[in-house]
Structures are given as C-alpha cells and as structure tokens.
Amino acid sequence: MKVLKSDNFFPNCSGHPSHGTDQERKYVTLISRVASLFNIAHKPVGYTGPLSRELLAFTGFSRTLTKELRNYLEMVVANLLTAGDADRENRKDWGGLGLM
C-alpha cells in the first residue's frame, strides 16, 4: 500500500497544497497525512479555514482501516480461544489481551 507516501492518492479530491515547489508540496502532503493519524487536543473553536477533501478522504480511509484491523484481530483471538488452540488455563495476562 502506498497510502502513507506523498503521492496523489486521491486525485479526484480537492485540497492539495498549492504553494511552493513540487517537492515542498509533497512534503506538506506527507506531513499532513502523518499528523492526521494522531489525536490532537485543541480549543473548541470553529474552524474557518479552507477544507482539504483529500485529507478528509485519507483520514476516513485510515480510521476505517484501523477499525477493520482491530475487528480482524478480535475475531482471530476469539477463534483461538473457542477452538482451544490457545493455552487458556495458565495465562495471567488476560487484561493485556484486551489492550491490543
């Protein structure tokens, strides 16, 4: 997957950087994508700047992928436990399994 690169992953969406050289625009795109993966605490003031549909599409894609991978991991763990493929009796880290 080439999602976390500076390539134009969503060509039909508006909001690509428009200032600077081609290399600077690629760096801004990459930095924006990486920064969108983290939860940032901010003041509850309405945003009035331009909206990047490209960044919104990337954020939606990454959050959907994260949820699906989490669901897949939970299904694999549930299958291991119900099928008896995991050692359930001698485990002491049951709380840690839920924090994956």
UniProtKB/TrEMBL annotation:
InterPro entries to which the protein is assigned, alphabetical: MKT1_C
Domain Post-transcriptional regulator MKT1 C-terminal: 1-97
Pfam family, one: MKT1_C
Protein name: Post-transcriptional regulator MKT1 C-terminal domain-containing protein
Protein species of origin: Ascodesmis nigricans
